[in-house]
Structure formats: structure tokens, C-alpha cells
Amino acid sequence: MKLYLNKTSPYARVARVCALEKQLGAKVSLKWVDPWADDAELLAVNPNGKIPVLVTEAGEAISESLLIALYLDGRSAVGSLVPTPDQANVLALAGLGQGLTDAAFTTVISRKHLGPDSDSTVLGQRRHNALSRCLEQLEGLVETDVMQAGINLGQIVTAVALSYMEFRLPEVRWHQQCPRLAEWLAVFAERASMKETSFPAP
Ligand SMILES: N[C@@H](CCC(=O)N[C@@H](CS)C(=O)NCC(=O)O)C(=O)O
């Protein structure tokens, strides 16, 4: 299998953490690409031009981080990342974490391409409000089974989203607003899969 990725994409990091947690690291070769450079090889496997993309051994190109995660989950016998009977809780948490990533990533990209004023547009305000609401809900979930049980996809997506905010939006002081979540992330970030895929120093 071949994973197209870069070092700063939260979506690509989710795919990579899943591969490592499923002990598939040796079976997934990493193809580093710049998704913003219209790389011909990337466009050949994903006309959408985005990472991550996982090309399977049979040559099927799967895009979208959560779909890649589900595919990888079925590729090894190591404990499922979407375990039953908690499937619904895990998927709900994964959706919440993905929403946080989307709001954070779009904020970063809008600032970069449209300038800092993009924060005060209607869409910028909506992103800001979405970030606050997602963080508040996650803070309320910290003590629940889905956050505390053995590793699952929801935890991975959430941890990567929070870590991405530390990396790209350090001015959002979510650690103070969400102390239990900050503690939870500190423990989760000690996992080998998280350390191996850490974002570069800003
Ligand atoms: N929903 C997608 C989002 C993927 C995405 O937006 N990737 C970014 C990098 S973080 C990208 O490749 N952007 C390039 C572009 O938008 O042209 C997923 O979950 O994989």
C-alpha cells in the first residue's frame, strides 16, 4: 500500500496514526507530496488534488482520511478501531473530532490565502463558533467510555485535531477553556504512533 501525505496535514496524520496503531507500518510506503503544487502523481491518483490518498495493493486509490482509516482497520487483526458494541459512540466522536479539524484547517487556509481579515467574515465567524462548540462538547466527553476505553478512531481523530490546533492556532487558548481535554491529550500524545507522526516545529 502507498500513502500520499505531507508532514503538516491533520487528515494525513490520522491515516498514518491508524496504520501504525494497526501495526501496518511496514506494509504502507509513504509518498511525501505537496498537495498545493499540483503534483502530477498525486493528481493521477486523486483528481481532487488532496491528501491523504491510500493506494491499495490492488491499485485502488482511496481518498478521505476517515475512509482510509476504515479500510486500514479491516486490513489487520489488531484490535478494531471501531469496536462493537460502541461503534456509534466511536463514529460520533470521530465526526466531532473531524469537525474540529475542518474548522481549524479552514481557518488556517483562509488566513493564508485570503488574509487575516477572513476571520471576521461571516464564514470566519461561523468557523470560530464551530471551534468553540466542538471544544466545549469534547471537554464534556472526556470522562466517558469512548474517550477513556482502549484506543479507537474517535480518539485518534480528536487527538490529531487538538494537536493540530496547538501547531497552527496556538493563540486559541483551549487548554484553559478545556483543562480535562488538555490532560487527556497529554496522555494520548505519549503513544508511539503520535510521537512518530508529530507535526514539525512551527
Ligand atoms: N476531507 C478530507 C480533507 C483533505 C484535505 O483537505 N487535505 C488538504 C491537506 S490538509 C489538502 O490536500 N489540500 C489541498 C487542496 O485543497 O488543494 C479528508 O478527510 O481527507
Automatic annotation (TrEMBL):
A GO-annotated cellular component: cytoplasm
Positions of the GST N-terminal domain: 1-80
InterPro entries: Glutathione-S-Trfase_C_sf, Glutathione_S-Trfase_N, GST_Omega/HSP26, Thioredoxin-like_sf
Organism lineage: Bacteria, Pseudomonadati, Pseudomonadota, Gammaproteobacteria, Pseudomonadales
Record carries keyword Transferase: yes
Superkingdom of this protein's organism: Bacteria
An MF annotation (GO) of this entry: transferase activity
Protein name, entry field: Glutathione S-transferase
Keywords: Transferase
